[in-house]
Design brief:
217 residues, single chain, 8-stranded mixed beta sheet
């Protein structure tokens, strides 16, 4: 990622990057049922661990939406295949931690498990600096961000949904874990063509726990 100080306000850098959206399912309804204290407890169990995983795989947090996270993976020097690898491994790690660690800890506090969805895609993007002197931030401009947001909505419960650009840059051995998806509202085509742009449900899981994934509370 370009350093924020290297991007002038009102300008942008073009780069290959992937975008990941993570979001908790039915959070508004669940938070009303849980009350403020248990909602805060839940967020403090989940969001810091998601951020830690993203940082571990060299991602940068673009925004925290309260019950969700948007992050960017990629630099001007790393290749597409490494970016795709890091992004999908981060997503698999988030799923592993949510299913095997966080939800069991919520259950121990008499809070029922939270579902989640993850959407990912990649392409050439503009990383822009927006705002005024003293109050500004990086933001992402490009179709991959819009598609990743949609794919998050289309993901299965506790699922990972990826766009075709990310799919094409994954190791071929991972393609056997990709199930092509359909949705009545998905109408993306490759730019300037009538060729449909596909998306996939990514069904691979970590085969066994990794030491760094053991959460300490």
């Amino acid at each position: 990622m370009p350093d924020i100080e290297q991007v002038q306000i009102g300008s942008a850098k073009k780069m290959i990057a992937s975008i990941i959206f993570f979001d908790l399912m039915d959070f508004t309804l669940r938070s009303a049922e849980l009350g403020n204290e248990n909602t805060l407890l839940t967020l403090n169990l989940i969001i810091p661990q998601v951020i830690y995983i993203i940082k571990y795989w060299k991602g940068e947090i673009e925004k925290n939406t309260g019950d969700g996270v948007m992050a960017i993976f990629g630099t001007e020097t790393r290749n597409d295949f490494l970016i795709a690898r890091d992004t999908i491994e981060a997503a698999m790690s988030i799923r592993y931690v949510m299913v095997n660690e966080i939800n069991s800890r919520l259950n121990n506090k008499n809070i029922s498990s939270f579902g989640f969805r993850i959407g990912i895609d990649m392409e050439d993007l503009l990383i822009a600096r927006v705002g005024i002197q003293g109050t500004n931030f990086l933001t992402v401009i490009g179709g991959a961000a819009n598609r990743a947001s949609k794919l998050q909505d289309y993901a299965k419960p506790n699922g990972i949904c990826i766009g075709e650009n990310l799919y094409r840059n994954l190791h071929p051995k991972l393609h056997s874990f990709c199930e092509q998806g359909t949705h009545k509202d998905w109408n993306w085509n490759y730019l300037g063509t009538n060729q449909p742009y596909r998306f996939f449900h990514f069904n691979a899981d970590w085969p066994e726990p990794k030491e760094w994934l053991k959460i300490k509370f």
